[in-house]
Amino acid sequence: MAYTNVLFDIDNTLVNSAFLIAETLQKSTLKEGIDIPVSRFRSLIGMPGDEILKRFGVENWQRVLERYSVDFSKNMYKLSYFTGIKELLEKLIQEKIKIGVVTSKNKKQFFDETKLFPEIADLKIITTSDDTEKPKPSGDPLLFTIHHHDLRKKSTLYVGDSMYDMQAAYEAGIDFAAASWGALPGTKFEFAKYVLKSPADLLTLI
User: Fold this and answer.
1) What is the CA radius of gyration of the chain?
2) Model's pTM, two decimal places?
3) Are 6 and 101 in contact (CB under 8 A)?
4) Which one, of 174, 194, 179, lies nearest residue 45 by Cα?
5) Cα–Cα distance between 139 and 141 in angstroms, integer?
6) Where exactly are the structural domains of the chain?
7) 5-16+80-203, CATH topology level
8) Distances in whole angstroms, Cα of residue 84 to Cα of each of 14, 62, 97, 99, 178
9) H or E segment at 86?
10) How far apart (Å, rounded) are the C-alpha atoms in residues 159 and 80?
11) What is the residue-level pLDDT of the chain in tens, covering all 206 positions?
12) Are 41 and 51 in contact (CB under 8 A)?
């Protein structure tokens, strides 16, 4: 099927960031006297940070997120695109495909954390968690994006690495492609129309 619009998750889909996020959240939470393994944080990457902390029963989640933001900013130099992502974005733009991001980051986090990635920061289609009342895995962020930017569902593909991305696409009624290069091993993408082994595989769908 030919797609004219491609929407992406960011963390561990475009940018190799999930482990740094999980590690920073774990260290920030530990300072509250709560010891949660990094692996448990990693398993929930794809949800907003406040939702992750609330799920673990962290009462002072606002303070943890403030500490997280400071520490994460100091270590952003460790982040990078996955191999082939920058070239993929450039090629999609050359092919006149509308591209954008739908992320669980809030607006401040988005602009703070994409400073090193202008190809993402400069996109015209950007939906963050504070654009809708319900974040992913709700389909609302994707539906907001489709309506706000006058996109057609049938010609829109969402690309993400987590079950939360897949659930959001399923609820929104649009096709989903799993970015297996950033997904946790063993993740079952039962509602995915495509399971991509590399960013280059996406070009064959367009």
Assistant:
1) 16
2) 0.90
3) no
4) 179
5) 6
6) 5-16+80-203, 18-78
7) Rossmann fold (3.40.50)
8) 9, 36, 17, 16, 16
9) helix 85-94
10) 18
11) 589 999 999 999 999 998 999 999 999 999 999 999 999 999 898 888 899 999 999 999 999 999 999 999 899 999 999 999 999 999 999 999 999 999 999 999 899 889 899 999 999 999 999 999 999 999 999 999 999 999 999 999 999 999 999 999 999 999 999 999 999 888 999 999 999 999 999 988 87
12) no
DSSP calls for 20-81:
HHHHHHHHHHHTTT----HHHHHTTBTB-HHHHHHHTT-TTHHHHHHHHHHHHHHTGGG--B
Residues making up the chain, counted from first to last: 206
Q: Which two tokens mark 110?
A: 């988005």
